[in-house]
Amino acid sequence: MIAILGIGTAVPEYRLNQADTAQRLSEALRDNTDSARWAKRLFKQCGVENRYTCEPNLLESAEDCRYFSQQSLQAVPTTAERMAIYKRESVPLALRAARNALHDGQADASEISHLITVSCTGQFLPGMDTQLVQQLGLAPDVKRIPLNFLGCAAGLRAVCLAKELAAHQHDAKVLIVSVELCTLHIQPSSKREDLFGASFFGDGASACIVGHASEEGYGGQFLLGDDRSIVLQGGAEEMVWEVGNFGFDLYLSTTIPKLIGQFVPEQITTLCGDEPIDLWAIHPGGRGIIEKLADVYGLSDEQTRPSRTILRDYGNMSSATILFVLKEMKRELEGAKKEMRSGIALAFGPGLTCEMIQIKYVPGVQSELRQMDEAYV
User: What is the number of other CB atoms lying within 10 angstroms of the CB of residue 186?
Assistant: First the structure.
């Protein structure tokens, strides 16, 4: 069986308190009272209390914050400036997440056969993959696979790809590293669609190791089952992410939760059939997505808690978020000493695309206890 052997996460040092950020943004919008009221309501209702940023200027007052500037575009960071920050900040954050994953999975850098790097919030060459090879001490001939500009669903697409790679090579250990600096693309705008995007995105990095499950006994791992990738009909214009002069321009339609509720259940049935789904690792692309799936499937607060917790404490970190959710879910399951449980992980991206994979949590089992069970049988 193929499993997620270890998970690591990391966030920047600067914390954006949601209430404080909403207040400063509304001050920047004081000449547009309708937008200021809309922003305050949006920031309060989106399910986020805190998130993190690599950009300390976002903690400055409304007058000094270049990303909130409403006076002149000359003060607003250009795309080139934002990409320079991305290049400087992304690699250290990615390294922290990767090292945490190696430690959690009790793996050595020399064991890594494949490296998948994921990001949609910045680019540079030579890329993050080459930096990680050198600074983590990976083999120079490690197979590098960058997944760039695929949006929020890319983290789970990387997990599905890693499962396929590991299935065809018995000694494969695939390191996935995702880093997203979403707050670099906050726009100095009073438009509702721009304020919506600014209300819940945060910065973060996550990593995991995918390989064959240990023969000595599983250690609180997620086994990976069948997966499915689909482009949903009618969603091409509902989630758009384009390069602009002042960062990347994001458009998210308010109809996305409705489309997910309309089209995704059929895809879940195709993947899982009649198998029971107890665990729900939902990418928290927004509060509405979690609530829609909870409503369609009658999910309990316990089932959606990992996704809601990550949204509340970190916001939506695009492709990096799903591993935060799985790590939180694993923490809860280990704390409750739960037995084996099955479920699904799913994420959504521009297209409108949907990535999903069956997961099975297997609690830690000591070799001695396993031997006793085998002897009893």
Answer: 27
